[in-house]
UniProtKB/TrEMBL annotation:
This is DUF8055 domain-containing protein. Residues 17-47 have a biased composition (Basic and acidic residues). Residues 1-59 are annotated as: Disordered. Residues 28-144 form the DUF8055 domain. Residues 1-10 have a biased composition (Polar residues). Coiled coil: none annotated.
């Protein structure tokens, strides 16, 4: 993680409220967004598409272990006792993490995708489907539905 809690506490929040002290829960969620982004960046750097026989299993792992935690963090931030405020940077990192995992998901099926979905869009799909694998497929259209 970059920065410490003091540094994070003075960053402007994405909702434009300025630089007032951040709530500890906001800082905690922001730290988790940074960690998810770091994990996604490392996974994408070392990602090798699987052979066709392992594509479904690897795609499931990308959806479950990558897309799911990113979208879940967003949903938790928006549905808890209070709405969490991410900094603009933290929100962008969460967005990038989810899209990195969606790009890896698509590569499992041989599709190069420059994923640029919003976390909110993914959350809405997840809340309708209740299935992160279906969410990844519906967003990316990979693999094609039969």
């Amino acid at each position: 993680m970059s920065g410490d809690a003091t540094q994070s506490a003075s960053r402007p929040v994405a909702d434009g409220r300025g630089t007032e002290e951040r709530h500890p829960e906001d800082v905690r969620f922001g730290e988790r967004a940074r960690a998810l982004a770091d994990e996604a960046r490392e996974a994408r750097k070392s990602f090798d598409p699987p052979p066709p026989s392992a594509a479904d299993q690897r795609a499931l792992e990308c959806a479950r272990d990558g897309v799911g935690p990113a979208v879940s963090l967003y949903v938790s931030a928006r549905t808890g006792d209070r709405q969490v405020s991410f900094t603009g940077e933290e929100f962008e990192l969460l967005h990038r993490a989810m899209n990195d995992w969606l790009a890896m998901y698509a590569r499992c099926y041989g599709v190069d995708l420059d994923a640029d979905f919003t976390v909110r869009e993914a959350a809405e799909v997840l809340l309708r489907t209740h299935d992160v694998l279906d969410t990844a497929q519906l967003l990316t259209c990979v693999p094609e539905r039969r």
